[in-house]
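Subgroup meeting minutes
Present: P.N., E.W., G.H.
Scribe: E.W.

1. P.N. recapped why we're keeping a running log of single-chain structure predictions: easier to compare across weeks, and new members can see raw inputs and outputs side by side.
2. G.H. added today's entry (175 aa).
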Amino acid sequence: MLKKPKFNFSPVPDYSTTQLTFLVILRLLIGWHFFYEGFVKLFNPYWSSAGFLLETQGIFKGLASSIVASPAALRVVDFLNVWGLILIGAGLILGCLTRAATLSGIFLLFLYYVFHPPLIGYTYATPVEGSYLIVNKILIETFALLVLLVFPTGGIIGIDRLIFRAKKTNKKRKK
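Output recorded in log:
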């Protein structure tokens, strides 16, 4: 007879301090990357997503071209991109609404990936640091966020910990 595995549903599972420390550091590093990318774009008056969108290849080429062709749509995409990066980064750094920030980061990176897939025959004018085929830095960072999604790092160190602690205290008082 096989034994069913036991799952620990507590906010902080039984991991070593070293494991938890490195997960939190991973969250902070990715958060900084998002935050800084948004911050730099915010204060660069010449930045626009138009260059990135114009280089789109594959199934999203038509959508990207239509966004660039509409100044209003391009302004919306630029605004969402910049503030999305900043808010996702801040959420990850502060451990605030970590799950929402992580899911949003995964979604944004997925969009970057599908608009610029690293596939054979696709070349981009934007310089890259290496040669990629299917797996690139965007895909790796996406999967790092997926790892963070399944570990409650905001509940370990961050504002989420204070929120969860306050909710737990309120539940105890009501009983």
